[in-house]
Amino acid sequence: MRDSTVVFKELEQAKAQHKAALEELFKDTYNPTKEQYKGIHELDRRIDDLEFELIKERRREIKVGDGCTLVLWTDKEAYTVIRKGKKMIVMQRDKAIKDPSFKPEWITGGFSAICTNNSDQSYTYERDPNGSTIRAFWSEVNGCYMHSGCKVINGRHEFYDYNF
What we know:
It is a single chain. With 164 residues, the chain is of the alpha+beta class. It folds into two domains: 4-60; 67-154, no CATH class. Helix content is 30%, strand content 33%. It has helices at residues 4-25, 34-60, and strands at 67-72, 75-84, 88-93, 95-98, 106-109, 112-115, 123-126, 133-139, 144-147, 150-154. The protein has a six-stranded antiparallel barrel with strand order 1-2-3-8-9-10. Strand 1 and strand 2 form a beta hairpin. Helix 1 runs antiparallel to helix 2. The longest helix is centred in the first third of the chain and has 27 residues, at 34-60. The chain is flat. It starts with a helix and ends in a 10-residue tail after the last strand.
């Protein structure tokens, strides 16, 4: 477990090395060696690994009072972290108030209809001291807290999928 700022610095260094390697690769020739391609590929993998580690560490650093989101396949629900242990957080459901100006626009046809402006919905959030509470447990494999097979991500991002 490392601090996300350390991982971020390593990621920036790897990206700079990658950029320099690409510039060197195509500086004079378009006939790179196998070793040059291998080096670029290794840097690509290092960047991917560091990006995942950065997201994971930022998710691990969530603290009491922070907003978070339970990702329920296509829907998302906003919560606030109210307790944190070593490998568990307790989250309380927030009040998510949909912008009253949002009106779903529908195209009908076949057996159903399609909401064409689904991604335009926005919400404001209020803490709800009477909101339901759930527990989420840290998953090292997924790099996030999980509740009943669903990921918990940082920040409040309420979303209702009208097309599901």
